[in-house]
């Protein structure tokens, strides 16, 4: 009987293992199939990733394109700052600080060099301060022709800060101007020749501590001067559709109520944890304000809110208050009336102030005596309008033209109201404070006073110098009545002849002075008749001029 073949047994046995060659073939096929699957899945994943990446790229490009347009529009409107402007502002600030750095007199002369003029260097520092006070943000000058013309018109009547507040602006720490002025009086009464700020911080006045203005108060009360980027937190724009005021930083309606406070990031809700500027700069936490009975009450309740404590020494009228009876009338002047208005209106808590620059950008904040004032918004630069306002849920309710730092004339205030109307502001429920009527009366009184002084000067001049006044009146009449080039030329010749005669008379009067004749005698410039005296003056033992303009004895 034949034996079974082993290959036949393997084929008949379903559980028998294939041969090694067969296993390798099967493994190779499986690996190839797996590789195809992996490649297919990788291709599908890459396609999905490419689609997602393309979608993200398209979305990013769309966002960037819209943001660039949005940023450009905000920059043109003055609501944002580009990097180049930041660098320019930083360089300008550094140059200004270097020019106004307090230094001793010896150090200042040593830094000038041997051939430098100290007087010219001092005038350069004065020019730097004046340029700062007259500076203006012109980023909105790229508008249409009508906008540029309106801005140029506002610049004609732009108001510079009062000269008595320049100390506060020039000081690098911006210490409260009222405190600085008190120490400035002591500096003027002293015999020092040093710069005021060097004298106050490093010189003889370093240890000075006045009883009415303690040194601790001087060194802790600083006024916040906003940089160009910081003031964007206080910028406000007017919506032409509803006429309401909105914050430019977040688009929320403005409300000058007790529900808001000032902080390093601008006006924020009262329950916000953002620290105040005084808390950051001095480390002193603000005093807790008493809770108000109604957060959205009338204007009367808004007088008890955030802000610093009222300064009893701000805008004093000591002479008026100490006078009794009818003697008060002798102390009743325009300055005392202005101080009374400012004291009653701006020293209360929760007083909201505004400033409009020459491009009609409106900034609003909370006044804090010795911390935040009208000069804070534009770093002491000039303005077109400033005052006090009240706004309820975006609607303007009250306006007042009072500002102690700038004291703008009523013309600026009227132009500001007109600009609000042109911008579409809702003024249906806006009222003007009574201070406007008082200031209007004061301006009229001062105008009449100037006219009376002018008439009085002409009358007195006519009595003392009747011929001169008649000649001036005749020349003025010829200037007005002269028609054509002939009349104008004759009047110009008469004026020139009169000016020449006046100069010659002044020179003859000056030559008759003893000091002038003595100097001429010493210098030998007295003419032919005095040459012998001049030669004799150069003999041994005679008097000669020294290099300082004085007189010394020249010996043999």
TrEMBL record:
It comes from the Eukaryota. Keywords: Cytoplasm, Nucleus. InterPro entries: IQM. Residues 273-284 have a biased composition (Polar residues). It is found in: Cytoplasm; Nucleus. Residues 466-484, 492-509 have a biased composition (Basic and acidic residues). The keyword Nucleus applies. Residues 510-522 have a biased composition (Basic residues). Residues 27-53, 131-153, 257-320, 466-556 are annotated as: Disordered. Residues 292-302 have a biased composition (Low complexity). One of its GO terms (cellular component) is nucleus. Its main location: cytoplasm. This is IQ domain-containing protein IQM6.
